[in-house]
Amino acid sequence: METNNKVNEIMKSLSKINISQPKINDGMKINDYTFTYMNLAFNHYTYFINKNLEELMSEPKPQYEEIKILYYKFIGLNDFIQAYVQFNSFIPIKPRLDDIFDLEFSFRMIGERYKKSKIQKDGIKLWTEEFEDIENIYETEIIQINKVEEISTQNIYTAKIFINYDDSFEETNDYFTKESNMMKIIGCNKYIIKLHKTYEKQQVLIFEYLESNLTDLFFKIKNKISILKKILINVLLALKCIHDNNIVHGDLKTSNIMVKSIIKPTEIVLIDFGNSFVENTKTLLLSTYPPPEFEDDEEENIYDRSIDIYAFGVIVKQLLEYDTDPNKEKFLQKILNKDPKKRFKTIDEIMKDPLFH
Questions:
Q1: Same domain, 223 and 283
Q2: DSSP labels for 111-133?
Q3: Do 319 and 299 share a structural domain?
């Protein structure tokens, strides 16, 4: 009963918190990252409490105490930031961004542990029981890429972990669902990264492991134009394959093109289908290289394969920087033309261009 009252007391206090950025009359503005991470911390905390309140009340006291301590840290840090913004000239010390990172990370880890225990109670095998971490390759706010070893075979794979302490975190859920669904329907085995295993409840995808992407390779072979053109032709074949299946990659760039082997650098596969979509369907465009007419799009819209075609043009410009072929400039003028009507419309049309012959 005491725990119940304490949780209810925290929930009432939590509902009064406002961490939106206040208006600042003197034009001063605190670092945007501060508020970004305060919001992340707040979201992790409120999702976790709201979705698991009943289970929380029955958890062992040590875990409850840990959450309570973090709650008070959060309140204190939030109050300090609000005071700093509103009375900037009277507070000489800025809020420490590291403190906010630590707080957000702590909330996330509590949720991860809770989620793991919940999965185990349901009798589901954890992916970490079948794979062992070797090293972290890359990490963002919502995904973590790890090099892992399958315990039963000792084969090396790549684990794409969608950072999510709870199924309620919609943004992470959406990326995982989109990518796992796309991997099922694309079917271009030769040009697409191979999916080894899916752990749906834990939101983890296990892919084949490849060492290098095209960004890494370029700095080693930037003067080897014939090899780079062969690579570009294979990228075109990969795009043709997914476009023939009415799929748009949505975020084509050199870091999303993996090289199968340094010995055979022209063999490539596409990765990262979290921003992919079925052509001519409504979606939010998150391309690194969007066509100029879509650069300012912030809401869902209907897009087609022209998104990939323009991005391919940007890649050609990057990779063939040292190419003296006179056809290059004509090609770039067409594929990157500000007028979409003057650009290439299909991969077949691009492949007939003199630049690739």
A1: yes
A2: HHHHHHHHHHHTTPPPGGGTEEE
A3: yes
